[in-house]
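Changelog note: in this version the structure field was regenerated for every chain. One regenerated record is shown below for reference.
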Amino acid sequence: MQTIRTCLTSAFLASTIGCMGVVTAPSTAEETRDFVDGCDASRFSPRPLDPGQRGPWEVGARNLEIGDLTVEVLYPAAPGSLEDQSPLQIDLRDALPESQRSLISDDKKPKVECDCYRNLPLDQGAGPYPLILFVHGTASWRTQSLSLMSHWASRGFIVAAADHPGLWLADLLAGICGEPVGARQDLVRDLRVLHDAFTVSQGELSFVSGSVDLDRIGIAGHSAGASAAAAAATLAGVQTVISLAGNRSIQSTARLSSALFLGGMEDQVIPFSQTQRAYENSDFKRRLLGIEGGGHLIFSDICELTNGDGQNLVEIATEAGVCGTQFAAQLFDCASSTVPPETAKSLVNASTTFVLEQDLQCVTSATDFEGFASEDWVEVVETRD
């Protein structure tokens, strides 16, 4: 596959990071660190020039309770703080109704591992860091796109994602399983709760106090989460909205810099034509990218999750007799994808990071977004002001 590494020219390489002044600042008596300038007074560790490459930071992860929301926060960790920790393991059985969790044994559960580590200290020598709020899709969970979120955090963003009441898997299966259903779905309220919590940065969020750039916020969402992201674009500080397999247009505000619409050309849940129409009906700077052979779930890790026997999530749940599996399986749009998973992941990582770094970290580039047109498996690329 031809990647962003080769399709972006040497001018891109010279201008993406190299154009920003590099300063050397002492972090401890024993070492010095190089930084590149960001927006205003922000500064960052030098990142790889290719936005699809992982950034220089190890990624910390904290699981928090914010109001009535269970939230995963990923962030750039302090240099040298990773010692003998093992990568974070996520137990997806926690996304099932409580009565169903014990049906899947330890040896049958899917393996979910993040290139991130629990409770590392935040890198306070750099920043302040832009904030990205991520919204999962219908019948999903906060870590559905863990690899994408970790990629962003490794490049100097603080990323937060919640299990959204009324939308996440446990609540949607609860009614079928005869359990009480959680709170009524209100995704914009959820995003406002997260936004306000980071604004105050107290309690469990005190570890990011003073390190979040609240004037530079991005909201990203997948499927139903993309609609929520579009609706929450009016929150203070939001400059960028990323719609992954979404079908809702985004209306301009005084602060919005741009929007990015990504879709899979073979999406059987939200056809690409709907994503394209949402892009066309938006009224400010926006970009569109269509991935050839991509299904609905290429923006998540869901299709790649298996257990030790090679069973996918639907096969695991069906064998265990988890109630409501037939319902959830209707959204399991994995068979429609023909694009190699790693290729799709690379394209999504690179294109989203390209936009986020331009809008929220003031990275400049001599090469515009249309450079992605030369990528293998990219079928549609367009930009409108």
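Spot check on this record: The first helix runs from residue 4 to 7. DSSP finds ten helices and 15 strands in the chain.
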